[in-house]
Amino acid sequence: MIQDTETIDEFLTRCSADVEEAVRKAAAAEILPRFCRLAEHEVDQKSGPHDLVTDADRLAERRLTEVLGALLPGSVVVGEEAVHANPATYEAIQGDAPVWIIDPVDGTRQFVHGDDGFCTLIALAHRGTVLASWTYAPARDQLATAVRGRGAFLDGERLLAGSPAPGRDLRVATSHPDFTTDEQKHALRALWTDGVAPRPCGSAGLEYLAIARGELDAVAFSWEAAWDHAAGLLLVEEAGGAHLTRTGEPFRVTGANALPFTAARDAATARRVAELLRTAA
């Protein structure tokens, strides 16, 4: 719980471990017991066959909403499943209150199919600035954290994204075609060019972690739901990376971004990918 005269920065110094405990407990209680054990009635479609939701998503988000809201009184929660039920709740990202942004199971398709490439994403933002993030891959028992200005870490080890090796094709993960407009598909096709090796993305959160670890050079994504991007973008920034929309501006979690956008291991790579996306217009 935040104290009367405490700043959010001081709260993070004191309570980051409590957030880590909350995400681990939510995964242990609601997600891992259902991994590879989902019954048919525990899985539903939202907008289509590639947009799934499970009981693990709903119950983990509910648990995290209660715990995180209690940790920081006066804060609000924007969770993927709550927004699906009531889209108006997304507007809290634009407000003045601190906001917890939650994706309880990022990579639900992988989770449903028994693939361990899924994670839980939590970010704390205030007035459009992401201040801290937690990326937890429970099936791999990996926890990545970032606090603005304090660096990015994976299981306590500092993350430094570095730069792509000269002369090697850029490894870029891109949006699934089902989640792109015709204009966005046209922009993304510009990445199929000499010097770039694009592939479809998996869990957005784990793709951002791969950038922060220097295992992936960039992503190019065509949607802007904050729960998919807030945690990972701060992780990439704090590991030394950068992000840009196709018009050359940093991505805003509050929305109204020119899509597709990119996040990359370094500023030069972000500029290169953004330029390719822009010239396809």
Automatic annotation (TrEMBL):
GO biological process, one term: signal transduction
Keywords tagged on the record: Hydrolase, Magnesium, Metal-binding
Transmembrane segments: none
SUPFAM superfamilies in UniProt: Carbohydrate phosphatase (SSF56655)
Binding site for Mg(2+): 80, 103, 106, 228
Pfam families recorded: Inositol_P
EC nos: 3.1.3.25
CC cofactor: Mg(2+)
InterPro entries: Inositol_monoP_metal-BS, Inositol_monophosphatase-like, Inositol_monophosphatase_CS
One of the record's GO molecular function terms: metal ion binding
Classification via Gene3D superfamilies: 3.40.190.80, Fructose-1,6-Bisphosphatase, subunit A, domain 1
Keyword Hydrolase: yes
Signal peptide: none
Catalytic activity: a myo-inositol phosphate + H2O = myo-inositol + phosphate
Name assigned to this protein: inositol-phosphate phosphatase
